[in-house]
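Annex B, item 7. Sequence and structure tokens for protein A, then protein B.
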Amino acid sequence: MNRLKGIVRPYAWGSRTAIAEMQGRPTPSPHPEAELWFGAHPAAPALVMGEHTDLLHVIDADPEAALGDQVVQRFDGRLPFLLKVLAADEPLSLQAHPSAEQAAAGFAADNAKGLAPDDPNRNYRDAWPKPELILALTDFEALAGFRDPERTVALLRSLQVPELDSSLGMLAGQPDHEGLRAVFTTWLTLPETVLSTLIPAVLDGATRVLAAGDTEFADELRAVLQLGELYPNDPGVLAALLLNLVKLKPGEGTFLAAGNLHAYLHGTGVELMANSDNVLRGGLTPKHVDVPELLKILDFTPVGRDQLVPKVESVGAERVYLTPAPQFRLSRVELDGTGMQHASTISFDMPGPQILIVTEGRIEVDGGGHKIKVESGQGLWLADADPDVLVRAASSHAVVFRARVPLGDDAS
């Protein structure tokens, strides 16, 4: 086992305080810090502290010892997940991710076109799917999944925007996945001359409704107004009208399967995803948007907020968030160094690779008599070949997130 130093990714939408505060550094940070990566992604593998190397090299040097036979065979010798702390002060792009079959086919097609790996017009960076799970550390807001069309019809009617009449009629006449597809496709393919009139009209309508008060869609309309201010004339502002607004409290999560259109809006959370770069964008970004390809992978089946929430199984001090993703399993552990409210220790003995990250306090990990202290904002790598470990709170309160690969009976 080894301590890990995560790699900060300085995207413009990031926070200048969240990650720095977690690691005990001065705030505000010199630049926005959007994500803190703990994994073996080639773009930013976590550093193995004290070893002058990174986790990718450690795994490549001995995949069997690092990952175990089952993971090596199932995932071609790759660590199949990427664990992050995500801190959003501004909205991320509207996006979706492909299924395993779509990713493999899309990657092969982009290769056949001769597109370079870093070509900005490339849709598929690898042949892997990218399901993801976000667990809130603070109050967290996101847009995710297409809302019940009948509720969306009610929202659009409340705006009283004549320019929306054709779309409203389309969805009211066919309030199902096909109606959602038709409206979404129409909006994303409108010429800029039309968008420059339609979006301001929608924002004016949202302002009127909010000023009048007494609307069940207040949170949704505030989100649309925020997006309209940040991305004027972007069709993603209209697309946001079709999606669920998901509000998470600390400890709550949302699982995003293949084809789920989503955008994180604000907040800090722990994100666990399949180790892939495949992102198909739908707006709220200056980056490449391939509408026909996005339409191939999107799932327009309406979902309720409750359908996006993973089931939780408690095992002692560990809360396990259950998802169908074969690449990962995420859990949250809260330890009490005083031993008065929660357990002060927990043991981990599952096979396969694991990464722990500490988001509050500090822990001491004992593996076969070898002890390592891990501070808030740091991680710990546990290889398949490592002995079972005992994790103890080394502060009055500690919160640990554990990422692993579900194997055997645990995978069901």
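Protein B:
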Amino acid sequence: MPIATVNPATGETLRTYDALDAGEIERRLARARAAFDAHRTTSFAERARLLHRAADLLDEGLRDIAEVMTTEMGKPVTQARAEAAKCVKAMRWYADHAEELLADEESSGEAAKDSGASRVLVRYRPLGPVLAVMPWNFPLWQVIRFAAPALMAGNVGLLKHASNVPRTALFLEELFRGAGYPEGCFQTLLIGSGAVEDVLRDPRVAAATLTGSEPAGRSVASVAGDEIKKTVLELGGSDPFVVMPSADIDRAAATAVTARVQNNGQSCIAAKRFIVHTDVFDAFTERFTAGMRALKVGDPMDEETEVGPLASEQGRRDLEELVDDAVENGATVLCGGERPDGPGWYYPPTVLADVTPGMRIHHEEAFGPVATLYRAAGLDEAVAIANDSPFGLSSNVWTREEADVDRFVRDLEAGGVYVNGMTASHPAFPFGGVKRSGYGRELSGHGIREFCNITTVWHGA
């Protein structure tokens, strides 16, 4: 894939970029290592000052970068502005809380005494340059939720962004430079996927984080494992959205529409499989389908647009193949299901009923505004359907019964259970999955410690 800005609303290539040559990659790796040697010794107060300044600059330029994101990957511009605002919030949160999250942990007196020590503590020290391989779907947020904690921990960042969002990638490097970060603390590597292995194997790179597809995660994890380097992976998702009889059906259906089509349906944590108890199946289906059908699809720069184009022509083709396979194998299309005529990579909000395990869409991630509906006879069947997936990122549960909540939290195979609400990420709470959705956690104290050397310091009596 060429490194290029291609407007998905029109299919027009706006600008192409040359990949960095080997000499420039070497210079950037050397700068990263030198920057780390200095940055790791800075105080939390200095790191917080720099990150607050970067947050202020992003806040000031929020509308401009939102338009860049919309141009590059097609999300409605209102959602792009919301994404940038969320990044500002996360940067300020980590600037204000990192010192507390990484404070030394003193062992209890009895434990220290038992080990023969006068004092024992745990200290969190930075690892070094961290390579971030990031996706196009949330081109700002995915990077900031890595960069903010990594920089506050004393690490430095190397960004290999998706090849269809180069302007956003370059903006991020300039953002941190403009905030006053020393040269090399955060650098964008305009390189193709074929160059990632050599960068990851370089001894100056200490660890890697990847958000993206399962094949990409498998590749990075394999290389990092061979080099014995720490990785955090956030991969695909096919999140269940379970609706039980006690749920507020109107609210559940309205939230379900947003949960499915946020970011044009191209979100790992979007609800994708809607598992509804038979007692409320018809009522929910009627409201949900009506809501999906009523969405405004169009120019993502239009303030009224709710669903824009998919990010790439291949992405739309992949989605069409999943829908076509489902229909050929007996699925019922309740709305959507056919691509519109005209330019751009649009696909309509689509609801499929009568989905069975023999269909590809039952096991594969539908990365676009396509929802699958399942009827469950009871809680046990709802859990079984929800867990019948290779993914386990997050989940949504709608019920007013505490006993139901306890069962779902106990039994759902997912990194998150959101009760009577839509899955979302927040800087204060850990985020990540199980199964083929990856491993490790981002955000919160759990996320900032992922790329730290957790060091035991023992003092003899």
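Comment on protein B: The mean pLDDT is 97.
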